[in-house]
Design goal:
With about 400 residues, this protein is mainly α. It has helices at about 20-35, 40-50, 60-70, 75-115, 120-150, 155-170, 170-190, 205-230, 235-245, 255-265, 270-280, 290-300, 305-330, 330-335, 340-370, 370-385, 390-410. It contains 17 helices and no strands. It is globular.
């Protein structure tokens, strides 16, 4: 084993070595340039913060990515939050989150305010094109995740059974049951020996702080629904819906789609058409896909909407992932060695593939693919993403234009 000689690794001894303003500046640059989704974001982080700025070593960065992939929540945002924490303490974590999230959130809020202006054939065609973008992007996510997270017949079976679970038990209940099913089967049959030689990281987070964050995570997850009492017409119910969606996302930002759909469309807060149009627009944004929640909060007219709705939805969807991350930081080196914990997560990730595959059909496919020409455009978008490797924002532009052309030609 080699020593980490003289590398400028902030946080390696638990003491931040940078400033919040430095973190904010670095992540604002990433927030306006990081296109392409969570995996691409991790590549941008590596180029800017590991290779160019040398905030942490390659090994510690890999450890951090593994931790955030292990936890529910938006993985790239969690990695950014943790890097900010390592570099400049709690203020650095807040600066990283704000700077990385703000650009796309503001653009999507503006899109929500201007969505009503999209009338006439051109506007309606553009909205339909964005819905076809959602088909292509979700299909790409299912394809890629299935290859990575279901590489054997056991995990493929978990994914297929999860499709049946969420099909016959609609809503958040079916999704929770599918994830619990994946956890149970993974724990039972997917264990592999732990690798030796894991590297250790020390974060400026104490055990008591971690315990408080975990307790707060549980209180909000369990207590807020009890206080809300099943109501769907209060600001608290909006916070509850977005918080639960953020708490149950395993496997990347696209998985939040079915969770938010069950919270927002099923309750009547937003139409399926507006939901999918916003999701399509979110594909063209830099930064985290979770800022889709900012659009949803702003676009809703009840129980709250506008800027206040956007603020509540954005905070609520990101908060559970950050609370769990802080709770796990002091204990990750111990947890990562447990074969049973890794096995349970393998099963949960396979179940997530099934949940997303079910969402690809309903609501994404059923709301967007209405005629053979729609299928052809969506398939072209999928091929452009998967085989041509075009950036998502380019596919958004192309399919948006195709949607307008279809509307003008076919009505």
């Amino acid at each position: 084993m080699h020593e980490d000689k003289a590398e400028p690794q902030s946080g390696s001894d638990g003491k931040p070595e940078g400033t919040a303003s430095e973190v904010f500046s670095a992540f604002l640059k990433l927030g306006v340039t990081s296109f392409g989704g969570p995996i691409a974001h991790l590549g941008y982080f590596r180029d800017e913060l590991v290779q160019r700025r040398q905030w942490v070593s390659e090994e510690r960065y890999a450890d951090l990515v593994a931790l955030c992939q292990f936890l529910p929540g938006p993985a790239s945002s969690q990695v950014g939050f943790a890097l900010g924490l390592l570099r400049a303490g709690p203020l650095g974590a807040l600066a990283a989150f704000t700077a990385f999230t703000l650009p796309s959130a503001l653009i999507l809020i503006a899109f929500a305010y201007g969505a009503d202006a999209f009338g006439g054939p051109v506007g309606l065609g553009l909205i339909h094109g964005l819905k076809l973008v959602a088909v292509a992007v979700v299909a790409q996510a299912v394809w890629g995740m299935a290859q990575n997270l279901c590489p054997d017949k056991e995990r493929a079976a978990i994914a297929v059974i999860s499709v049946f679970i969420v099909t016959f038990l609609a809503g958040a209940g079916g999704q929770i049951l599918a994830i619990l099913f994946g956890v149970g089967v993974g724990f039972a049959v997917l264990r592999t020996p732990s690798q030796s030689g894991e590297r250790h990281m020390r974060f400026p987070v104490s055990g008591p702080v971690a315990a408080v964050c975990f307790a707060l995570f549980l209180v909000l997850l369990i207590g807020v629904p009890l206080v809300a009492g099943g109501a769907t017409d209060t600001a608290l119910s909006v916070f509850d819906g977005f918080y639960r969606a953020g708490a149950l996302v395993f496997g990347g930002g696209h998985v939040v789609l079915p969770l938010l759909q069950s919270e927002v469309v099923a309750t009547g807060w937003l139409s399926s058409e507006s939901f999918l149009a916003g999701y399509g627009a979110a594909q063209a944004m830099p930064g985290p896909l979770f800022t889709f929640a900012s659009y949803l909060g702003a676009a809703m007219s009840e129980p709250i909407g506008g800027l206040m709705g956007a603020l509540v939805a954005t905070i609520a969807v990101f908060l559970p992932g950050f609370l769990l991350l802080i709770a796990a930081l002091p204990f990750w080196n111990v947890i990562a060695l447990r074969a049973d914990a890794r096995a349970a997560m393998r099963g949960a990730n396979a179940a997530v593939v099934g949940i997303l595959a079910a969402a690809l059909y309903n609501p994404v496919w059923t709301s967007a693919v209405l005629r053979p020409a729609d299928f052809a455009v969506a398939l072209a978008g999928f091929i452009l993403l998967v085989r041509w490797k075009l950036a998502p924002w380019i596919v958004v532009v192309l399919l948006g234009a195709a949607g307008v052309a279809l509307k003008l030609l076919l009505g």
